[in-house]
Amino acid sequence: MRTAAGPATVGPRPGGRAGLVVLLAVLLSLAGTVAGGTPSARAAADVSTEDARVPSGSGADAVELDTSLYLPASASADDPAPAVLLAHGFGGSKASVAADARDLAGRGYVVLAWSARGFGASTGQIGLDDPRYEVADVSTLLDLLAERDDVLLDGPGDPRVGIAGGSYGGALALLAAGYDQRVDAIAPQITWNSLTTALFPDQAGVVDDASSPAATPRTGAAGVFKRLWSGLFFGVGSVPTGDGLLGGLLGGGGASGDGGGGTAPDLSTVDPAAVTQALTCGRFRADVCAAYQSAASTGRLTPEVAAVLDRSSPATVLDRITAPTLLVQGTQDSLFGLGEADANARGIAANGTEVKVVWYAGGHDSSASDAVTADLREQVAGWFDHHLRGTGPDPGAGFSYPAPTGLGSGVGTVQGGQQTVDAAAYPGLAADDPVRRTEVALQGRTQPVVTPPGGSPAALSTLPGLGGVTAALGGTTLEIPGQYAAFDSAELTDAVDVVGAPTVTLQVAAPAGTATLFAKLYDVGPDGSLTLPSGLVAPLALTGLSADPSAPTEVAVTLPAIVHRFEVGHTMRLLVSSTDQAYALPADAAVDSVGLAAGTSLAVPEVPGQTQATAGSARWWVLLAVLAALALLGWLAARLLARRRGRRLAVTSPDGEDVPLRFTGVTKAYKDGFVAVRDLSFEVRRGQVLGLLGPNGAGKTTSLRMLMGLIRPTEGRIEVFGHAARPGAPVLSRLGSFVEGTGLLPHLSGRDNLDLYWAATGRPRADAHMEEAIEVAGLGTAIDKRVRSYSQGMRQRVAIAQAMLGLPDLLVLDEPTNGLDPPQIHAMRDVLRSYADTGRTVIVSSHLLAEIEQTCSHVVVMAKGRKIAQGTVEEIVGTGGAVLIGLADERDADRAVEVLAGLPGAGPVERTDEGLVVDLGPVGRAQALTALVTVGVAVDQLTPRRRLEDAFLSLVGES
Fold first, then answer.
1. How far apart are CA 123 and CA 116, in angstroms?
2. Of 73, 110, 738, 795, whose CB has the highest number of CB atoms within 10 Å?
3. Dist CA 135 CA 115 (whole Å)
């Protein structure tokens, strides 16, 4: 089911305040929606709806709840069905979960959706899931379901019912299960454990029972106010609904009998305090409004504020929850992080209640992909099927999380068909199942950290609720020089998968004895690029600190819980900053000192498991099999039809064994009129290493794809060893290739990938020459490690080894040195040359002109789909350009300059430390040398001054 924000279309004009408020409302509503999008095919069954206004509460707290009941055709008095209550996210209404309600009703459940107090068309004021109000309303709705004869009962007044909800609705599901024992199963998503900890986090310290992967310290007497997120919430809830709020306070009347403008209000009777509260508090209850105003103005967690937030926290009732619980939490969530689900899981499991934990790629900061959303919807439905109906497989009490990647959050990170890792249980819920932690050493001296006055300028980590926008703008964090201390690990020799909250111990000194700091763990790439996984930071509200930098206070720190891979060659950087724009910051300037505790290391949690494709993608296997079968039949028919024509057209060139590759008049045009390759002709002889050069868009890759039989030329003929190179041609078995990406399976070792590739050829394993290819690629023992732990250079070498399997007579490589370091490039150069020395032929397409110059014997230069030059490297470099003339005796320099300047068509002569440089123009080198020797000038050397790069740029420019 959907548990993350998704795209929305907002109606009000851009820039208007109302438009901003509606945007925030839509954002938060979608962030808390249980499931979105089009209902599944099962929901196509006949589902009827009944809308009703249900009274709840009494006296001044009485309200009317706007409800919709979704009834499946299968539910009746003779065959009653279990029920599901669907709660919406903050800022939403019953309409937010309408698609999910129809989906569940289509699966046979009686579904009741409603708008919570203060939202949609329901009356009343927002109490933030207050047990006295919103939770009591759930009990009213349970009573309503118990009165229906089409709802399955466990006993008189006790319906068989589950509750699902996201964010605001998720907390309501937990609280309701704690207060009303009639609830039989719950599926809360992206929600909180303690609203106090979520909005006033303080991650100084380590949870005593830190045996679970994302255990995060719970806030004590203080915390760092999550200012931006809290402002978003309050901004949505403070918008009045309808005209009656101020109208009733001002006493405005209706139309007068004479058609005038109505009765003017008596301003002398207006209570200014009531008007102020109506304008500033909107739909919030007075105590909630007062708590926010106190926090927003002071940034402090007072006992009064804590009382309001604790009252709405599931943490207070976890010991009462007996309903089997599916906890779904997002890894891209700066509002309610993974630590909130961790605390809920530990608290509920302590009762012996069955708990399953699912982390997914998404959350309040980033939408989940359609495939992930569909998978979550199925997991929630499966949970209810088993625990409400007693049907379907037992989902168990396991744990799953997205397979870690080295990508940052945002656009392009959360992808359809993403893999997940399944573990038998959530670590730490059982005493004998602690989480495994790896120690990563950090280095760095003690450093001063400046807190600017007023907290400005402040570092930027992410935009709350708009992580996708942050990524679209470059995904770059902003750290202010002087405001942070940084500590780095060594370059990683093995990939590290972080699954949970790392811990570390710092040494901090502050003149005032207190400090507000923000700790974060960066991924630093080999090129120095920085990635802050999920844009998450750990606020630290530190007190009782030493004022003496020479005797600092040790502070244990729990970093944000993340799911991220730190690749080989990357480093981990612990950064401790004094500011972050998302939080309330101290007003006073200060200079604190931050260092690492002696002998400390970063303790990184890792959770092993089995990598699986998402269920959403796996369920398509039947359709894919059908499509594959149809494609196979079509291919067989095409082959039968083409075989006769192939017999007539098959022509073998007599010099095929001496000319492994020949292009003759090859053109490739597409239906839109674009011509990628035009009239291309060249040939490659046995034993040559040919470099295919050209700028982007020159047609190099298209030419290689035609050579490999992946696409057909529009005109012309391509021959491999004298045979036409068409799709499926047997002669292509003599060709090994690496073009456009490695295509390796990350969960297998390098050796397994090579074995699988060769097995797919159907040829005997002995013909693979596996060990020779592995030795050539220089992988060593790394060949038996999983590919997911490889650096880009290692993946490149495995792909090249794959191309060399079977020692093909023609080897085609597209950008083979991408990701290789200089020693590896040098080794690759020797490999290709020695490979050609055996009588085989190598084609290399590359942008690294210096490597082509040092590796290849021959060159074909392309531009705009055409060949513009061909020949040996020496011929290409020597066509025109300058020469360097070294003299045996410097005293002959003046006479040499005079001779060279007198040659017809020669350019000006330049004196350099290396010798004389002159563009000979039409004059040959031999003629220039003869002219110098004739006048008695002794020449030590005469070499081309121009490199391949110069020739390439000259040729491409001319084209």
1. 9
2. 110
3. 13
Query: Which DSSP string do the residues of 315-339 spell out, in sequence order?
Result: GGTGGG--S-EEEEEESS-SSS-HH
Helices (H), 158-285: 168-179, 195-199, 227-237, 244-250, 272-281
Per the CB < 8 A criterion, the answer to whether 533 and 633 are in contact is no
Distances (CA, A) of 698 to 692, 851, 855: 10, 19, 21
Whole-angstrom distance between the N-terminal and C-terminal Cα of the chain? 57
Write out the residue range of the structural domain in which residue 937 sits.
880-958
CATH code where residue 748 lies: 3.40.50.300
Residue 2 domain-assigned?
Answer: no
Q: How far apart are CA 80 and CA 82, in angstroms?
A: 7
- Measured in degrees and rounded to the nearest 5, phi and psi for residue 416 equal -65, 145
Amino acid in position 235: G
Q: How far apart are CA 866 and CA 694, in angstroms?
A: 10
Q: Helix crossing, 17-31 with 227-237: angle to 10°? A: 110
Angle at 227 between CA 222 and CA 228, to 5 degrees: 155
Q: What is the pLDDT of residues 147-163, one digit of tens each?
A: 999 999 999 999 999 99
**Rounded Cα distance, 685 and 690, in Å:** 9
User: What digits encode the pLDDT tens for the residues 186-225?
Assistant: 999 999 999 999 999 999 999 875 679 999 999 888 899 9
Q: Helix (H, G, I), strand (E, B), or coil: what is residue 782? A: helix
Which CATH number does the domain housing residue 936 bear? 3.30.70.100
**Residue 704 and residue 640 in one domain:** no
Single out the residue of 341, 317, 321, 302 nearest to residue 196, CA to CA: 302
DSSP conformation letters of 630-685: HHHHHHHHHHHHHHHHHHHH----TTTTT-SEEEEEEEEE-TTS-EEEEEEEEEE-
- Judged by average pLDDT, the poorest of 124-133, 410-419, 547-556, 782-791 is 410-419
The answer as to whether 214 is a domain residue is no
Residues 572 and 626 in one domain: no
In this structure, the number of other CB atoms found within 10 A of the CB of residue 145 comes to 24
Strand order in the sheet with 185-189: 47-56, 63-72, 110-114, 83-87, 161-166, 185-189, 325-330, 355-360, 399-402, 419-423, 610-613
Residue 606: name the closest of 784, 466, 440 by CA: 440
State pLDDT tens for residues 895-950. Answer: 989 888 888 888 888 888 778 888 777 777 778 888 888 888 888 887 766 555 56
Pair of tokens at residue 908: 């000006």
C-alpha distances out from residue 236 to 12, 91, 122, 125, Å: 15, 6, 16, 13
pLDDT at position 475:
47
> Is residue 44 within 8 Å of residue 103, measured between CB atoms?
no
Cβ contacts of residue 350 below 8 Å, gap of 6+?
A: 318, 319
Nearest-angstrom CA–CA distance, 184 and 177: 8
Residue 794 backbone class (left: φ over 0; alpha: ψ -120 to 50; beta: rest): alpha
Reduced to 3 states (helix: H, G, I; strand: E, B; else coil), residue 471 is helix
